[in-house]
What does this fold into?
Amino acid sequence: MSDQTDHSFNSDHFRAVMGHFPTGVTVVSGMDADGAPHGFTIGSFTSVSLDPPMVGFLPQIGSATWDAIAESGSFCVNVLSDQQGDLCWKFARSAADSTRFDGVDWHPAESGSPVLDRAVAWIDCSVEQVYDMGDHHFVLGRVGSLDADADHDGQPPEPLLFFKGALGGFEAEG
Ligand SMILES: Cc1cc2nc3c(=O)[nH]c(=O)nc-3n(C[C@H](O)[C@H](O)[C@H](O)COP(=O)(O)O)c2cc1C
It folds into this structure.
């Protein structure tokens, strides 16, 4: 079999082109073996299956946060609102920074994983399968419980969006 690796491939160009696909922004959270909360900003969240209900996301292989929460066998996806841009950057910093949850209000979901207060939606999952794909894992989760539209002072919550390296909001047309 021939080596089909393209050694001239430009990863900066790959990143720049992929940045043209807008995503929502989530914080995937979980607990470590000592009962401490962990979480990281994840854009690669997707719904996978309705029956059975499954979702997935792709953490980088070697991620300290994923390594910390994987053992618990569960995680919670928190969809950030447009009022939570600060959390997007806070939870994207190096995991060596253990202050991610400082000043962040949360309560445990059924699995024990943190539900962040005032998120647009949250999806609590048990880990069904972890597949290695290139330099990322694909984590497939079975949904245990979920909810959306928490009270935002009487206002409908609006999602946070990420596009070409910047954060913005959603505006409905028509
Ligand atoms: C908007 C946004 C989306 C991100 N999406 C992902 C993702 O899907 N997968 C991933 O591995 N890292 C993603 N990151 C980067 C991680 O948040 C970051 O590498 C991580 O928090 C570092 O901690 P760790 O070393 O514990 O993984 C994203 C960052 C931002 C700002």
Remarks:
- Residues 11-18 form the longest helix (8 residues).
